[in-house]
From TrEMBL:
Cofactor mode of binding and number, as noted: Binds 2 magnesium ions per subunit.
Entry keywords, A to Z: Carbohydrate metabolism, Cytoplasm, Isomerase, Magnesium, Metal-binding, Xylose metabolism
Enzyme Commission code(s) on record: 5.3.1.5
Keyword Nuclease recorded: no
Cofactor requirements of the protein: Mg(2+)
Name of the featured protein: Xylose isomerase
Source species, domain of life: Bacteria
Amino acid sequence: MTRFFQDIEPIRFEGPDSTNPLAFRHYDPGAVVAGKTLRDHLRFAVAYWHSFAWEGGDPFGGRTFERPWYPQDSMESAKLKADTAFEMFRILGVPYFCWHDLDVRPEGASFAESRDRLFEWVDYVLPKMEETGVGCLWGTANMFTHRRWMAGAATNPDPDVFAYAAATVKSCIDATKRLGGQNYVLWGGREGYETLLNTDMARERQQAGRFLQMVVDYARKIGFDGAILIEPKPQEPSKHQYDFDVATVYGFLKEFGLETEVKVNIEQGHAILAGHSFEHELHLARSLGILGSIDMNRNDYQSGWDTDQFPNNVPEVALAYYEILKAGGFTTGGTNFDAKLRRQSLDAEDLILAHVGGMDTCAAGLKAAARMLGDGALETALTERYAGWETQAAQSMLAGDLETAAARVEAEGLDPQPRSGRQERLEAIVNRYVG
């Protein structure tokens, strides 16, 4: 046991009337909702990078946090960081964590040293995972921080960087498999461009597609049976990224014959940056059959960038989980808190409080979503709105040609009148469950 959290006791469920900030008000992990426990529905994961590797800097200022494992430049510090991480997992009672290679080990002087340090970390945490029962939801590679990635990884104009990216991802898939990871995620942090003046988009898309095919082939070759996920993001740090949103990713997967092999890990903040709502991206992924997992956070709507704040908006979260429940819930995926403290939130207790608040928000949202889906008010209204398309005449028209469809207008004297979409009524229905 580390001393970083100063003997904070495991967080308990105390119910909605509790005023204890170090208690759950809505998240009762064993409570059964819609046929499953909240623990099994939500499948919470802690993001190693924001919780333990991020130092509190921003584009205008440096580190604000002081942690016992700083500087993060030795395996001794990496092991202390791992000790602290598993202590927090125990306090929160989360079932999973997620990681990048650079989060968990320092960069080595060579690729081989970096790889060996990653595997040393794996050896160090495997007994902790067995002891605590905490699993790996997913692993991934950081191919955006080091200067070698400044022009991308798989999309880089230098083939040597492509090779280095291949070696990096191979080592991270190997590590994820050893940890029993249920997914492997690719986030193209710099797979995009800053200016078209020095960019061949066709070439870079081909490189990205071929790289992903290689990743899928290797994962299956070594018997990794988890899901392969892409995380869409439209911009930042690149001006334009090739994995812009769910629709763009699906078109990319179709182009390279991977639509049945790869799914998406959708982040709330990235959806907002793409000009969408979180539920829009989830709905589309569900309808396309590629919904895998989620990163749960929120953006500051007054800022034009990805602020990665912990969720606190129950109505927004409820609509997100409504889509997830309609998809049948998570299989290999889960709710990863890709969220970080504000750089003024310096204390160890702040890290616990942030996760408690986020977990409670998600639990309240999921319970509201389950009630909405169970009562069927929204689904009934949706069915009624499209009922005309269920008739034999409509189905025959859809299967026919343009001339036959057009002929109906004069033959049947059609003069269709607009029908109310009843948006305000539906919004009021939602508020009955989240109010």
